[in-house]
Predict the structure.
Amino acid sequence: MESRLTELEIKLSYTEDLVEELNRTVYRQQEQIESLQRQILNLQQQVQDIGPPGQGGDLRDEIPPHY
């Protein structure tokens, strides 16, 4: 009976370590997701600021038709 209890305690300890490691992994992934979402929003804003091609802007920035 004592050995079974010891085995269960060891398994519980390993399980707690695993859960803690998984929590850290999920936390890091969530931080990465949030960072990527901010980057996407920034890129979308930059694209909107540039505007669609052919509207406004400097003609020197456009590629000549012979290209």
About this structure: The mean pLDDT is 89. The radius of gyration is 28 Å. Residues 2-50 form the longest helix (49 residues). DSSP finds one helix and no strands in the chain.
